[in-house]
Design brief:
single chain, 271 residues, alpha+beta, 4-stranded antiparallel β-sheet
Length: 271
């Protein structure tokens, strides 16, 4: 039953009821069906339950994620696990209208991570000369949110080692050779820090729902959805910083967006 043709699953009462329960418009329903058919033609997902694919497709469209780089379908024990990317969290955070910018960046060895003597907060001073950035020497990951007053409302920094320990602790697939942490470590690390930032912000119902959706494993027909990993925990070891300096948008190139506040420079990875 779980691996029946996608066309049969989409024609079932299950799919009709799912669409209604998520309050999708007719246009969204059509888009979700298109996403489901795309998943059905993906060889990497051949062994995954058809109804699990349907659930993923409808949930992705529910959040307006037209591009797969907002949320990834990951095969997990014959089912589909949702992995929300840092771009997905960023997009939904910005939809609240409460923040001017939400983003994340890789921190390299040439960048300085320091603790402000006055506030006790962590600050990243980014190397302004991009020619000096050796992209093979990554030491951490930084995420932040800027409010409409131009102040950083929340930010987090985690070292590579902290991200590795996080993954070992909360991702059961971490040690799999083809697991997403092995194949896309940078993106998963950026997602980890920005998810924690989003968990500290004044969030919307949509964001609260998205945090719960992340890492959910969609069950098949008449099966409950489950969590193989813990989607809601905020690691106490992650270093949090709130900086009350105004931030000014600056120039950008093909790889980076550059921001400055006072004497400091902030570099945002665009990939």
């Amino acid at each position: 039953m779980g691996n029946l043709p996608m066309s049969q699953a989409l024609a079932s009462q299950f799919t009709t009821s799912l669409s209604k329960s998520l309050n999708l418009t007719p246009a969204q329903d059509m888009q979700a069906r298109s996403v489901a058919l795309t998943l059905a033609s993906n060889p990497a997902l051949d062994n995954c339950d058809t109804y699990s694919k349907v659930k993923y497709a409808y949930e992705a469209v529910r959040y307006g994620f037209g591009a797969e780089d907002r949320m990834y379908p990951v095969p997990y024990g014959g089912k589909i696990q949702a992995q929300v990317s840092y771009k997905g969290f960023r997009e939904v955070a910005l939809r609240t209208g409460k923040y001017r910018q939400v983003d994340a960046s890789i921190v390299y060895e040439c960048d300085k991570v320091i603790r402000d003597r006055n506030t006790g907060q962590i600050i990243v001073e980014f190397e302004e000369d991009l020619d000096k950035v050796d992209e093979t020497k990554i030491k951490g990951y930084f995420a932040f949110a800027v409010n409409h007053n131009g102040e950083i409302a929340s930010s987090r920094y985690m070292t590579v080692k902290q991200c590795e320990e996080w993954a070992k602790k909360y991702s059961k697939s971490y040690n799999k050779p083809n697991g997403i942490w092995k194949t896309q470590f940078n993106k998963m690390a950026l997602k980890t820090v920005i998810k924690q930032v989003c968990g500290t912000l004044e969030s919307s119902i949509e964001m609260q729902s998205l945090i719960k959706q992340d890492q959910k494993v969609y069950g098949g027909l008449n099966e409950n959805d489950t969590y193989a990993d813990n989607p809601n925990v905020i690691d106490a070891e992650a270093q949090e910083t709130t900086i009350n300096n105004s931030i000014i948008e600056g120039e950008e190139n093909d790889n980076w967006r550059i921001y400055r506040w006072k004497t400091r420079t902030f570099r945002v990875w665009k990939h």
